[in-house]
Amino acid sequence: MSQLALVIDLNVCVGCHACVTSCKEWNTSGTAGYLADMNPFSKDPTGTFFNRVQTFEVGNFPNTETVHFPKSCLHCEDPPCVPVCPTGASYKREADGIVLVDYDKCIGCKYCSWACPYGVRELDEHQKVMKKCTLCVDRIYDESLPENERKPACVMACPTNARLFGDVNDPDSEAAQAIRERGGYQLMPEWGTRPANHYLPRRKTRITIHEDELIRADNPLYKERQLPMPDADDPTLDETTSW
Amino acid sequence: MHPAFSVIFLTTLIGAGQGLFLALYTGQLYSVFKVLPVQDSADFYALGSLIAVLLLLAGLFSSFFHLGHPERAWRSAACWRTSWLSREVLTLPTFMGAVAVYGLIHYLGWNPVLYSFRDTFDIDLSLVIGAGASLLGFTLFLCTGMIYACIKQLQEWATPLTVVNYTLLGSASGFLLATAFAAWQGSELTEFFGGWAILMTVIAFITRTASLIRNARIKYKTSLETAIGIRHARIEQKSQGFMCGSFNTREYFHGAPQHIFRLIKWSFLVLVFPIPLLLVSIGLSANALGLLIAAFLVQYLGLLLERWFFFAQANHPQNLYYQTVG
C-alpha cells in the first residue's frame, strides 16, 4: 500500500518560508474554499496555514547551529486524529495514505486537534472547520498539469530542494531512498503515530587527513637527498637534473 | 489547553444531573427493600427527574457553543466504534430520554408491579427503567472521562483517575443537590442523600488530590529533542514562524498568569471540598434548607473552577513548537 509523504532535508533548508507562502497561495485558491485570514490589515492579524517554518538554535555559543524546521501535517500511518473524530470527517485514504478532512462533515469540535501531538491542524476561523495539509491532493493527481509539476506546492517552491515528495513505502522512490540512505527520522516517535513525513538530519561533511598522507613516506628524493653535490667542473646534465 | 466555557458548563451540568438521578434511583432502590420509606411518585421522583433532565438539557445546550457547526451536530453519532466523543454524544440523549421516561412513569403513575419477590419486594416498571438509566448514567461518566483520558500525549489527563474524578465529582454534586431537593420536599431521605454526598465528596477529595499529586510529578515524554528530532541538551526556539497568534497559540495555552492559575487551584480545592462539607453538615444537623442549597451552589461554583483547572493544567506537546514569537 502506498503512502505519500514529504521528506524534509534539514541540512539544506535555509528557512526562506517559500514553502509557507507557496502552500498558502495554492491552498487559499482551491475549490475547498480559502484559508481565512482574520484582521489581515489591522491589529493582531491571524490566519490559517498548513505549513510553517520555525527556527531553533542548537548548542551553546559559539558552537551553535541554526536549524530551520518546516512543520506541516505528517500524514501519520497510525494517525491519532482519525479515530477520535466523532463524525468521520477526519479520515486517512486507503489508496495513498493522505490524511484529509471532509469539510462538509466536520462539526468544528476541535477534538482531532487535541489528539494530534504535533499541532498541525488549524480551525479555520471563517469556515469553522478543521483544516490541515492535504499534500496538495488537488495538484498531485491533476492530469492537466505537466507531469513534473504534479507535486505539492511547497515542494515546487523550495529553492534548495529541501523537500522531497514521494511514496515512502516504495523502496525505489526518491523519498524512501533518502530516508534509508541519509538517516531519515520521524518526529515524536514516543506516541506511536508512525509519521509518514520524515526529516533528514543536519550533517557535517568532514574529511580526515593523516600526516603520512601529506608527506610521501617512500619519496625517492627524500631517501636520496643526502647525495653529494657534483663538482662544479664536472659535466652536468644542466636542463634535466640539478647535480 | 485553553479551557472552553462551553465544555466547562457541559461537564459540570451533566455531572450534577447524572448524580441527581443516581441519588433519586438509589433512594427508590432502598425503599423497595424497605430500608428507606417510599416517596411520593409525582412530587419526589417525577419532579426530581425533571430537574435532572433540565440540568442535562442545559449541559447539552452549552455543548453546542463548542462547535463550529452546531447544525451538523447530529453527524457526531456516526463514529461510536472508535470515538469516545461520539459515544458520549449517543449516551447523553439516551440517558436523558431514560430519565425522562422514568420521571414520566412516576408522574403518570404507569408503574405496574412486574414481579413480586416473595410477595414482599415489588419490582415495578420504574425500577427496571431506572436500572437501565443508572447504567446509562455511569456509561456517560465513563464516556466523558475517557474523552480526555484516551489522549495519550495529554499526560495530565491520560490516567484512570480522570474517569474516577468525573464520576465522583459529578455524583457528589448530584447527591448534594438531591439533599437540598429532599429537604425542600420535606422528605426523610435528606439525611440519606446528605450522608452519601459527604462520603462522595470526601472520596472525590482523595482522588482529585491524588491526580493533582500525580500531575505535579509528571515526567513529560516529549521534549524539544524528540519534537524536532535533534539530540542536544540545549535547544532554544528562535522563531515560531509568525508574529501574531494562530490556532496553535490560542487553543493550547490557557494564557492565565501563574498566580491566577495557582489561585484557581486553591479556590477549587476549598470551594469543592471543605466548605460544602461544612455547610451540608451544619445544614443537616440544623435542618436548614438554605445551607443545603448553599452547599450545592458553592460546590458547583468550585466545580466550574475545578474544570477550568483541569483543562488549563493539561500541557499539550505541541506547545513546545510555540515557545518564542521571534
Q: Whole-Å distance between the termini of chain A?
A: 76 Å
Strand residue content of chain B: under 5%
- Please state the average pLDDT score of chain A: 91
Percent helix of chain A: 10-25%
What Rg of chain A do the Cα atoms give?
28 Å
Any idea what the shape of chain B is? elongated
In total, how many beta strands of chain A? 11
Q: Based on CA inertia axes, which overall geometry of chain A fits?
A: elongated
Give helix and strand order of chain A, one letter per element, not per position: EHEEEEHEEHEEHHEHEHH
Distance between the termini of chain B: 22 Å
State the oligomer.
Answer: heterodimer
List keywords for this structure.
heterodimer, A: two-stranded antiparallel sheet, 11 strands, 19% helix, 17% strand, elongated, B: 326 residues, 4% strand
Structure report:
Chain A is an alpha+beta fold and 243 residues long. Chain A is built from eight helices and eleven strands. Chain A has helices at residues 18-28, 81-84, 111-115, 137-140, 153-157, 174-181, 211-214, 220-224, and strands spanning 4-9, 37-38, 46-47, 52-58, 65-71, 90-92, 99-101, 122-123, 130-131, 163-167, 198-200. In chain A, a hairpin with a 6-residue loop joins strand 8 (122-123) and strand 9. The longest helix of chain A is centred in the first third of the chain and has 11 residues, at 18-28. The mean pLDDT of chain A is 91. The model of chain B has no long low-confidence stretch (mean pLDDT 95). With 326 residues, chain B is mainly α. Chain B starts with a helix and ends in a 13-residue tail after the last helix. In chain B, a hairpin with a 3-residue loop joins strand 1 (113-117) and strand 2. The relative contact order of chain B is 0.14. The chains are: A alpha+beta (243), B mainly alpha (326). The interface between A and B is large, with 62 and 57 residues. Strand 4 of chain A pairs antiparallel with strand 3 of chain B, so a sheet runs across the interface.
